[in-house]
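Reviewer comment 2.1 asked that we show a complete input and output for one of the modelled complexes. We chose the magnesium ion case, as it is the one discussed in the main text.
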Amino acid sequence: MPPEESEVPDVSIVVPTYQEKPNLRTLSERIRGAFPHSYELIFVDDNSQDGSEQEVATLAEEGHPVRIIVRTSERGLASAVIRGFDEARAPLLVCMDADLSHPPEKLAPLVAPILAGEAEITVGSRYVQGGSTAGWTLVREIISRTAIFMARPLTRVRDLTSGFFAVARSALEGVELAPLGYKIGLEVFVKGKRQHPIVEVPISFVDRVAGETKFGFREQWNYLRHLRLLYLHCYPVLARLLPLLLLAGLAVGSYYLWTRVLHS
Ligand SMILES: Nc1nc2c(ncn2[C@@H]2O[C@H](COP(=O)(O)OP(=O)(O)OP(=O)(O)O)[C@@H](O)[C@H]2O)c(=O)[nH]1
Ligand SMILES: [Mg+2]
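Response of the prediction step:
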């Protein structure tokens, strides 16, 4: 349901994009066909120069409630989403990928608990009953599970690396989100202010069919840097002592081995 230009929509859907032109029309059409609330769809694009701007202009002319913010001096998924949240008008914010991995048909169940006042944050989850991934290689599965395992002490969310989530704007008031790396969802799950548990809505994650991945080694490195910041946020003392504890453990272990060698 497209809102009038001046009307504040119920939901702002923020989609970070880099060279996703082949996916923009399908995404916008599927959202329009499946989402029953008034919404605005905001693409935050890092100067893709692949015709995305023109594509969104055409969609807007056709009546789709879309706009595109093109950033020329910044690059990165998390900072793009934060920019989208800053520019969004609705009291309820959604983040999703452009590549149709996150089913637009799941938007309605995703926002339902927040609209009902039963949650402040919801997650489209691959790892709860009814959720799934399709078309993943074993390597990708292992990378995903390892990333989740490393962040387990930070939140109870099972699919804590999900990039498909909804959050009430009020849960982010006064919260400083780190614009680092790929996992802006994790940042929100850990720092978001809430009165209710985070609700996980099962989704069937579909592998991208068009466009190319932007996920690579740099993003995995950034994920480790991001985790360090989040551990410092949640467990400041322990996280600061960790290098010392590791060093002490290494020293004790070496001493133990050395004495065993001397006595053998
Ligand atoms: N604005 C912006 N968007 C980005 C950037 N990197 C990735 N994205 C977008 O973030 C979303 C997730 O990126 P993907 O490349 O799909 O990452 P992924 O889901 O881990 O990997 P695949 O689905 O296998 O490609 C997509 O909509 C991308 O276009 C970036 O640097 N800036
Ligand atoms: Mg993707």
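The beta strands are 11-17, 39-45, 66-70, 92-95, 121-125, 132-134, 165-168, 199-202, 204-206. We note this here for comparison with the apo prediction described in Section 3.2.
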